[in-house]
Automatic annotation (TrEMBL):
The lineage of its organism: Bacteria, Bacillati, Actinomycetota, Actinomycetes, Kitasatosporales. Residues 185-264 form the SCP2 domain. Residues 15-153 form the Mycothiol-dependent maleylpyruvate isomerase metal-binding domain. The keyword Signal does not apply. Keywords: Isomerase, Pyruvate. This is Maleylpyruvate isomerase family mycothiol-dependent enzyme.
Length: 274
């Protein structure tokens, strides 16, 4: 094994999720490719196009030269424009063309990752041309493909893998960002403690603490008498934290105890992905 030990879990999670995606879309009929994915402006085919495009960039393939149509209502930011190029150039591809390209790209990318011999602190080119640590880049790729696997599963009515290796990567990444949600975005007062209790396929409890200087941190210790306790199931947590649903749409799946005003502010800022 040439992959650094700290990178291997992300390579494994990426491999598991991309294999699942390939198995999900390979048998799709033409109409199923056009199902809404739940992401603004994107069909099932668009989600797969995004995955293909990002893995092509990971391989170092040149980005396509393409001018986006002016009527894409869901494209509003530089980040969205960047991501949309790889999607829009494939909008007229057929299902067989999509599955063939996906299979070829994943074979190439899988071979590249198996032969990776750089260390976690080495830099690679990320989205928008930014230089990022390879560990951060691979973690983000594992997170991205697993979250999109779940988008596809919801769109196609084929749930599963909510407790897979990719799910664990997603949990840890999303939980890390709770500190900013509570301390900065929701502006919790110094010395505030908030507990998030999640059940389901992944079962965990995390405590967010805001110190006297207003900085947030997250740990797994139990806290007595928190200002707020938020309880929900893992799939609802995932959908809220990745902006796939609104609080109003899932309010029956979210139990709030304690300071209702602070809880509302936390939930308003719960989505932490672009």
């Amino acid at each position: 094994m040439t992959v650094h030990s700290s990178l291997q879990p992300y390579v494994d999670a990426w491999t598991h999720a991309t294999t699942a995606i390939s198995e999900l879309v390979s048998p799709l009929a033409d109409g199923e490719w056009h199902r809404a994915s739940g992401l603004p402006g994107w069909s099932v085919k668009d989600v797969v196009s995004h995955i293909i495009g990002m893995e092509c960039e990971g391989l170092g393939d040149p980005r396509p030269i393409h001018t986006l149509p002016v009527d894409l209502y869901h494209v509003k930011t530089e980040w969205q424009r960047y991501m949309e190029v790889q999607v829009d150039i494939r909008r007229h591809h057929t299902g067989p063309e999509m599955t063939s390209e996906l299979e070829y790209v994943l074979i190439r990318r899988g071979r590249q990752l198996r032969n990776e011999n750089r260390g976690p602190d080495d830099k690679v080119r990320g989205p928008l041309g930014r230089q990022v640590r390879i560990e951060d880049y691979l973690r983000d790729r594992a997170f991205d493909v697993w979250v999109h696997e779940q988008d596809l599963r919801r769109a196609l009515g084929k749930p599963g893998n909510l407790d897979s290796a990719g799910a664990l990567v997603a949990r840890d990444l999303l939980v890390e960002r709770l500190a900013k949600v509570v301390a900065k975005d929701a502006q919790a007062a110094p010395e505030t403690v908030v507990v998030v209790d999640v059940t389901g396929a992944l079962d965990f409890m995390r405590t967010v603490r805001v110190d006297k200087d207003g900085r947030g941190s997250v740990d797994g210790s139990v806290s007595l008498g928190p200002a707020v306790t938020l309880s929900t199931n893992w799939e609802t947590y995932l959908r809220l934290a990745t902006g796939r649903t609104t609080v109003a749409a899932v309010e029956e799946q979210v139990k709030v105890e304690g300071d209702q005003k602070l809880a509302a502010a936390i939930l308003r800022n719960f989505a932490v992905t672009p």
